């Protein structure tokens, strides 16, 4: 493999017997190793080889060891071998079986992996098996980095896994970057968006000029050179300047193309967008489109009515008109600013804090299910073709945005009007008022 392999990242495969660990191993390294059968009662040493994806090389390790019956998995010898590999791993592939669903042994292994949860990729294998689909969401209760439904035998889903895995793996060059990412991961990333000439640049310069404590670019990192880390009242915020590339590199497309592209990229990279609206002109069709982009991508939103000194109506009436035109993002707080003087900046940061708190809010599964029971007790989902609609259980899948999964027997019963009502009631119970709340309805066959 040459010199590049010496510093290659290390990826460790972990999982109970018969989930397809060594099938996955062979698929990733691109050749069949001489491996003893992966079944209860068979002992083998760990195996390792180099794998390559998109010109990136990494070292793949299958811990192997004793393959006992499930109840004996944590025999000292086995645990010692697995635990020896985990601390030095740059990433961990936790392989589970979609056909069998989440087992008690999977949960025991998950407990062992908790200290490394930020580098655990859950590989949900055998998704092409009969009955596997209805078990997929069982695994999303695990508190790990990401979830990847795959078929190791046929190769389905491996490209997405490898894309994310190789991007994450630490090399010597990336270790410094990872330290910065670790520092920034709990800091809200904020994009200023809006039409030309609404005051975005003035607002950005006012925020940066008054509050900047760490100035971009941050040397030796992959953070964009136009991102600015701002500290205010002891809290940090990463502002993404949509100015980006100041000039089009290809005159064929023109300035407008690049402006739109920069805005789309900024929204994609952000947690929260601040939609800057010209207070004198009010909400335009373009403002609606920009708000719609944040909605479809599940991003937090603050609506900033700038040039508040030029309002043609009272502030209350201006807010009423804005909310009427942007009714689909009714969770977004509205603030008024005058960027040229700095008036309203305090309120802007307060709104960002409100959105961030809700955007990152996490609830236990038991609490989510209590909320669901309260809602359906008074307003159950409608029946479908005369048959009742059941809700088996629910859980919060993730944050940023908060996403709740509801497992039901009839997905057809969940019409738009009921989903909107359900989300509204769920917001109240989960105390999520200022951020998007995503509801995923998953159908499971009746027993």
Automatic annotation (TrEMBL):
Domain named EngA-type G: which ranges? 188-360
Where GTP 1 is bound, by residue? 62-66, 125-128
Q: Which Pfam families match?
A: KH_dom-like (PF14714), MMR_HSR1 (PF01926)
- Gene Ontology biological process terms in this record: ribosome biogenesis
Superkingdom per UniProt:
Bacteria
- Please list the residues that bind GTP 2: 194-201, 241-245, 306-309
Q: Which InterPro entries match?
A: G_ENGA, GTP-bd, GTPase_Der, KH_dom-like, KH_dom-like_a/b, P-loop_NTPase, Small_GTP-bd
* Molecular function via GO: GTP binding; ribosome binding
Gene3D superfamilies named among the record's database cross-references: 3.30.300.20, P-loop containing nucleotide triphosphate hydrolases
Q: Which UniProt keywords apply?
A: GTP-binding, Nucleotide-binding, Repeat, Ribosome biogenesis
Stored PROSITE patterns: G_ENGA
**Which residue ranges run through the membrane?**
none
Role noted for this protein: GTPase that plays an essential role in the late steps of ribosome biogenesis.
**What family is this?**
Belongs to the TRAFAC class TrmE-Era-EngA-EngB-Septin-like GTPase superfamily. EngA (Der) GTPase family.
Q: How does it assemble?
A: Associates with the 50S ribosomal subunit.
Q: What is this protein called?
A: GTPase Der
Give the organism the record lists. Aquifex aeolicus
